[in-house]
Specification:
270 residues, mainly alpha, 13 helices, 62% helix, 0% strand
């Protein structure tokens, strides 16, 4: 347990930077056609969103710590009414937090107001590891609210949240890397986890595929509720049609895009 606590106490920002550097080099090696200069410019535009995330990090941290402290102090939630092993409580907690993210992610796509914010992430027409940083800051707040609501209802331990984010940070970057993974990765891990190839389908320009594969860590929710779709990565065209063009890919344009009335362009699949 001490080893787990030591790992979870490690600053995730260091992990984030290390992984971004690693995948930047790997993407450059495997995709020789990509120009390093354009990748750096892409990284800067997306990385500026991470600075906003860091700026509101103290608010998010306060919300999380306060909520879990209240749960513990009041012995609140379903898990605190049931006698179960600690490891089972932690494991179920991780799955339930991911379950909350799944439904909030669907809401992101169905609610016009939330979609205006979420489309900032989807509008990237050249997806690579830095796309994982491209998130409008308000999204972080309401996703956390969803995670905290389910944590209160079930009495989830803060250890579950810590493990969830420890898994999420590297996996989320892996999901967005421009490297195409072999089919055996999907066969071996895709029965439980959202693999990079599966998540890339979620970034397909065609809204029919965009509205699928909502899982954050686990793909089981998509397969259980019928929102799973597959398309070969080589056939995927990234981004949103209404945001094609270099002027619409800049940080400043994306920062104000949630306040712009941009009509969603979809294809007919009837």
């Amino acid at each position: 347990m001490d080893t787990i606590n030591t790992l979870l106490a490690f600053d995730t920002n260091y992990i984030l930077v290390a992984l971004l550097v690693l995948f930047f080099m790997l993407e450059t090696f495997f995709n020789r056609s990509e120009r390093v200069g354009s990748k750096i410019n892409h990284l800067i535009n997306n990385g500026l969103f991470q600075l906003l995330a860091i700026a509101i990090g103290s608010i998010l941290g306060w919300m999380a710590v306060s909520t879990f402290s209240w749960i513990e102090a009041n012995n609140f939630g379903l898990f605190n009414l049931i006698d179960m092993p600690y490891w089972l409580k932690i494991t179920l907690g991780v799955f339930l937090i991911d379950f909350a993210d799944y439904w909030f992610h669907i809401l992101d796509h169905k609610s016009p107001l939330l979609w205006r914010q979420h489309r900032v992430h989807h509008s990237d027409t050249h997806m690579d590891a830095s796309t994982s940083l491209r998130t409008f800051p308000t999204e972080l707040i309401y996703f956390l609210i969803g995670e905290l609501i389910i944590s209160v209802l079930f009495g989830i331990d803060i250890m579950s949240m810590s493990i969830f984010f420890f898994i999420l940070v590297p996996l989320f970057i892996l999901h967005h890397t421009s490297i195409e993974f072999p089919a055996w990765v999907d066969r071996g891990f895709g029965w439980l986890f959202v693999t990079p190839n599966y998540h890339k389908v979620h970034h397909e320009q065609d809204q029919y595929y965009t509205d699928s594969n909502y899982g954050t860590i686990f793909i089981i929710w998509d397969k259980l509720f019928g929102t799973f779709k597959f398309k070969p990565v080589s056939e995927i065209k990234y981004g949103l049609k209404e945001f094609v063009g270099p002027e619409k890919q800049s940080f400043l344009y994306q920062l104000r895009s949630p306040f712009l009335s941009t009509k969603k362009i979809t294809e007919d699949h009837t």
